[in-house]
Design brief:
Blueprint: H1 3-10, E1 37-40, E2 45-48, H2 56-61, E3 72-74, H3 87-102, H4 105-108, E4 112-115, H5 122-129, E5 138-140, H6 141-152, E6 162-163, E7 178-179, E8 183-188, H7 193-204, E9 218-223, H8 230-233, H9 236-251, E10 256-261, H10 270-281, H11 283-288, E11 290-293, H12 294-309
Helix pairs in contact: 3-5, 6-12, 9-10
Amino acid sequence: MTAGVKKLIQGLNYPPEVCLPFRPVGRLLHPSITLFVCVISLPSHLLFPPSSNQYNSPELRQYLPSFQTAYIKTYTAPSGPSSVNSTADALSSAQIAYSHLSSTPSLLANDAFIVACYSSHPLVSLLRSDQAMARQPIIGIFEASIGVALSILPVTGNISNISLAPSTSFPDQDKQRKFTAAKFGIVTTGAAWVPLLTSGVNAYLGLPPSEISQSAKFKGVESTGLTAEELHSAPAKEVEARMVAATRRLIRDGDVGVVVLGCAGMAGMDQWVRKACEEELGEEAGGSVRIVDGVKAAVAMAIAIADGEAPRI
């Protein structure tokens, strides 16, 4: 690790024991989507996953919309954790990705960067702190999803008031449920991410750090109990069942109007979230719940910002 990387890492105030070089994972796993960085050029994008899983980029790309002003290419970092399941994994992947990125001038020439790991990933801060990237927008899919979720929630005075039938999954639920749709919530992977993402949302919104939501607009986080790798290695029926169950727990009070996919590896799983919404809330209310994919949100946002920065001829 270079002295510059050490200085930037230390400035993030992470515990010193997790700021040391990490051993790379020496094997490739089943194709799954774990951590990505999109280095977006106009008219070319570079999808940049700094994990050791070299097969995940094309799989994610098929779920992204096409843009006339840009396209996505894929790249995989030479080493690193195959799945980001902890703060230590996030730091490891950030160190490896940043070291490689900062030493590759051709990558620095791109117009925008997306850190596509659904967390308060330290690579966002590392890239934003690099003077060589001072002009490029650097967007995390976590932050992008929050911005989009808040922008599509109902405004005060225009909130749905649809009556809901009693919950079939939660018989003790209030039988007089109303669909107010006033909050957004997140469906994520392992249980360890529940407090981390909750704290991350609070911090992003400028609220006191807490593992409990501090915002009237944020419902909270529900876990599927699967890692990012298991989203694609476990039997599809099990993954679907866990996605549906976690979504139903999140929305059962009737106050969630936006569900955010809390992992890049959940790309394409929005159909299961929709199924859960309609099963739990009914076709009318469940069909009106919005679903946000942070990768798509970040790509669209980065293109818009980079296009605004591009010189006009």
